[in-house]
Automatic annotation (TrEMBL):
Residues annotated as domain ABC transmembrane type-1: 14-294
ABC transporter domain ranges (all copies): 324-529
SUPFAM superfamilies reported in the protein's UniProt record: ABC transporter transmembrane region, P-loop containing nucleoside triphosphate hydrolases
Location(s), subcellular: Cell membrane
Keywords: ATP-binding, Membrane, Nucleotide-binding, Transmembrane, Transmembrane helix
Main location per the UniProt record: membrane
Record's bilayer topology term: Multi-pass membrane protein
Source species of the chain: Clostridium collagenovorans DSM 3089
Protein's recorded name: ATP-binding cassette, subfamily C
Length: 532
């Protein structure tokens, strides 16, 4: 993940150069103030007015450069976080479906929200601020040493003490950051779970139990936040002590040097103006360094989420498929065997109905054919090529799916049917007619431009199923896999849609269903019965 941020280091460098110019101008203005003070004391009017003019001009330039510096910093932050988020989503979409499903979705959500936000705040922003503070300290140290070496030695000693406190605090905070990240994930998983089962919670009157569990998990997260805040407070208190000592000690030294005639009164003004640029950067860095170092555990966690857990064996691309052969296929969930030594053949252009009792493995067989899971025994062969060796992208271009669970995007009906692909109006209208959506579309206020909300909460289950069917009919495919697609449709509509699908020539249809229409049975070339 750090590589993604490094790609924005060019913008970071430009932003830091602009910041360095701001620092130089600021220091020059403070020197100019010292010259004005010395000129005022010596009553040199010309020197005073000359210094004043230069100060005004430099202040105007400083204002402009400061604006540019802030703009460049924001541009760096934009590029860094965009690279980070884009690469994270790309890595997730590079996972195969069977690999993606091994993890709880909330783990990915936690990565997007909590972990990436932590990296943005504690790494992306801090790396700029820490380097900027170091530049500020270097320039100010050079200025101070030109006035008094004793003063610089005093400042360095206090600065070293302050830095040691920061490093010590970072060591403890790293542990708490790692634990908090894990607890955030658990909380995200639980929130997703209770929101998905809201109706079950209400119907079974377990709201109090769920709220109690939720508050317990929140308390654990907040306890870790409290520990981090407590360390921050202790560390901050010690830093404040060092800053006060630095402030008081600096003025004691410069006033003593002025009394002894070692430095001029103008130098007192210069030091007075720049002492904040010693104290503030040290205080700022001592709070930023611990959180910056602590992001190491967050980066590690993000890497674990996005990295593939196994090497891909996919190396064969296909452009069409003629025959799918299932040989001695076995698969189970944990200790329960669902499929064992299954042997079936599906030929190009033929239509197959797969029936069987609930739990006999019908839907599991389709998931294996979709590459959602890998076989645990035997194999699936496409034109004598092991399905495991075929690239997912090329295989998915040859198949289409109508699944039990239909997901709809919060977008227009048209985009939900086309899935953001380009089709002609004629193709879209044909899919709408064949799927039985015609009257539904005609009765909508904005027809195809009507918005579908929150996974279809503003339409019926039957309409969602028809949209899924229309999606599939739009695609150019060799194999259509149907999993209980007609369960949510009325009898006549389901029968007519099934008949339409079965009469499409040259495509292979594998329909897993417990809904059997006697009038359409003759349209199937073969009926396979799984289980007993």
């Amino acid at each position: 993940m750090k590589k993604d941020i490094r790609r924005s280091y060019g913008y970071l460098s430009i932003a830091l150069i602009a910041s360095f110019i701001v620092i130089i101008l600021d220091v020059y203005i403070s020197i100019n103030i010292g010259d004005m003070a010395n000129a005022a004391i010596s009553k040199d009017k010309n020197l005073f007015l000359g210094a004043a003019k230069i100060g005004i001009i430099c202040s105007l330039i400083l204002l402009l450069v400061n604006i540019v510096s802030d703009y460049l910093y924001n541009l760096y932050k934009l590029k860094a976080t965009s690279n980070l988020k884009c690469n994270y989503i790309n890595k997730i979409f590079n996972k195969r479906i069977n690999e993606y499903q091994k993890e709880n979705i909330a783990k990915y959500i936690s990565g997007f929200t909590n972990d990436i936000s932590t990296v943005e705040k504690d790494y992306v922003e801090n790396i700029y601020s820490i380097i900027k503070n170091i530049l500020r300290l270097i320039v100010t140290f050079v200025l101070i040493v030109s006035i008094s070496v004793r003063l610089l030695i005093f400042m360095v000693l206090l600065g070293v003490g302050s830095t040691l406190i920061s490093i010590l605090a970072a060591k403890f905070m790293k542990k708490y950051y790692k634990k908090r990240s894990g607890l955030y994930e658990e909380l995200s998983v639980y929130i997703k779970e209770i929101l998905n089962t809201f109706h079950i919670i209400k119907l079974n009157d377990i709201s109090e139990k769920i709220k109690s569990s939720y508050l317990n998990k929140v308390e654990k997260v907040e306890n870790e936040n409290y520990k981090i805040d407590k360390l921050d407070t202790i560390s901050g208190g010690l830093q404040e002590l060092f800053s006060k000592l630095l402030f008081i000690g600096t003025y004691v030294i410069i006033l003593y040097c002025t009394k002894e005639g070692i430095i001029t009164l103008g130098s007192v003004f210069v030091v007075g103006k720049n002492i904040q640029y010693i104290i503030n950067p040290i205080i700022d860095m001592t709070t930023r360094i611990p959180s910056f170092i602590s992001t190491k555990s967050v980066f590690k966690r993000l890497e674990e989420i996005k990295e593939s857990s196994f090497e891909s064996d996919e190396n064969v691309k296909i452009s069409n498929l003629e025959e799918i052969r299932i040989e001695d296929l076995s698969f189970g969930y944990e200790d329960e065997k669902v499929l064992e030594n299954l042997n079936l053949t599906f030929k190009k252009g033929h239509k197959y109905l797969v029936v069987g009792q609930s739990g006999c493995g019908k839907s599991t067989m389709l998931k294996l054919m979709r590459k959602y899971y890998l076989p645990q025994g035997g194999g699936i062969y496409v034109d004598n090529i092991n399905l495991n060796d075929i690239t997912s992208d090329s295989y998915y271009k040859c198949i289409s799916n109508i699944e039990q669970q239909v997901f709809l995007f919060e977008d227009t009906l048209k985009n939900n049917i086309t899935l953001y692909k380009n089709y002609t109006e004629e193709e879209i209208e044909n899919a709408i007619n064949l799927s039985g959506l015609r009257s539904f579309v005609d009765n909508l206020p904005n027809e195809l431009e009507t918005m579908i909300l929150d996974n279809g909460k503003n339409i019926s289950g039957g309409e969602k199923s028809r949209i899924a069917i229309a999606r599939s009919l739009l695609m150019k495919f060799d194999l259509l896999l149907i999993d209980e697609a007609f369960a949510n449709l009325d009898y006549e509509t389901a029968k007519n849609i099934e008949s339409t699908i079965l009469n499409i020539p040259d495509i292979t249809v594998v329909n897993v269903s417990h809904v059997i229409f006697e009038n359409n049975k003759t349209l199937y070339d073969e009926v396979y019965a799984l289980g007993s």
